[in-house]
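Inverse folding, one chain.
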């Protein structure tokens, strides 16, 4: 269509502008269907560099949390945007304000930057041009990747309403059983990892009954009116090996409900594994952890740096 400007020049310009807008909208349609994202923290696009970081998810629940949190922290430090698949497991559990939908190929097409060891901080992961896009892998199990952005991260890792509602009801039932108010009790969440960690060949060490006794004593000696709430993937073992003569309750729901319940407690006893690690982080408060998580000289012992994996203010007990 050819426009010539004559006496109705203003009208011609208006018609031309409308036509251009329509043509652009039609041609942009396929792109719009392929790419859709919302910005982390609702920040304007102009405040970010051109590159984005893709969070890659492998392993279980706790692994996914480390992968998201570390990608988030590195992206924030580089003033970049994080994208994840909108149907990812974490987006169904937490109110994460970042989405990337209907484009399976985008992240797979980006260059991958991988850590050296799964539970050791690798500063080289931050050394890249932030105008480029990457996907980060693989386990990223160090608080050092995201610690300075903890408050912002906590805003994203807020459980969805239906999960919180169920966890809150579990706690209420426990309090009712002991006829005590929430204000007058100290709740200690306990996660006991068993399952695949038992008799493994990688060098992971499961916590012992002696460790559980020492960890329980730590809180009994420091706080009054303590109730321990235990979740485990080896519940029968946990019931047989938790100390006697204490107030203890056991939960065995979906993993999302178990984590939400333990993270609603005041303090945490963790054994080994990333699930318990994140129960502790989400709960805040004091954390006691098993300080002998690896057999010396094994695969896992060579890949975990205790100072990188556990916070210095957390309390390690052998």
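Residues assigned per position:
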């Amino acid at each position: 269509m050819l426009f010539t400007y004559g006496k109705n020049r203003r009208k011609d310009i208006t018609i031309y502008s409308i036509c251009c807008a329509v043509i652009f909208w039609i041609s942009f349609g396929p792109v719009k269907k392929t790419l859709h994202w919302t910005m982390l923290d609702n920040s304007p696009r102009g405040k970010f560099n051109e590159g984005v970081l893709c969070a890659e998810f492998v392993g279980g629940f706790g692994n996914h949390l480390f992968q998201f949190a570390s990608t988030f922290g590195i992206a924030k430090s580089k003033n970049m945007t994080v994208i994840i698949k909108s149907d990812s497991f974490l987006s169904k559990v937490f109110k994460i304000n970042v989405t990337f939908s209907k484009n399976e190929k985008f992240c797979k097409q980006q260059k991958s930057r991988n850590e050296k060891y799964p539970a050791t901080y690798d500063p080289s992961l931050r050394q890249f041009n932030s105008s480029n896009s990457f996907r980060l892998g693989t386990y990223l199990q160090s608080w050092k990747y995201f610690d300075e952005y903890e408050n912002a991260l906590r805003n994203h890792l807020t459980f969805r309403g239906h999960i919180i509602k169920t966890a809150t009801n579990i706690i209420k039932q426990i309090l009712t059983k002991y006829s005590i108010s929430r204000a007058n009790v100290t709740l200690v969440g306990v996660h006991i990892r068993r399952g695949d960690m038992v008799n493994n060949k990688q060098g992971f060490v499961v916590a012992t009954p002696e460790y559980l006794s020492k960890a329980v004593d730590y809180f009994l000696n420091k706080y009054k009116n303590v109730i321990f709430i235990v979740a485990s993937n080896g519940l029968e073992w946990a019931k047989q090996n938790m100390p006697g003569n204490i107030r203890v309750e056991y939960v065995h729901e979906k993993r999302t409900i178990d984590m939400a319940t333990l993270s609603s407690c005041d303090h945490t006893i963790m054994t080994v594994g990333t699930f318990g690690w994140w129960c502790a982080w989400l709960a805040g408060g004091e954390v006691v952890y098993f300080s002998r998580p690896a057999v010396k000289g094994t695969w896992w012992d060579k890949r975990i740096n205790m100072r990188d994996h556990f916070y210095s203010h957390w309390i390690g007990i052998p």
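The radius of gyration is 25 Å. Residues 9-34 form the longest helix (26 residues).
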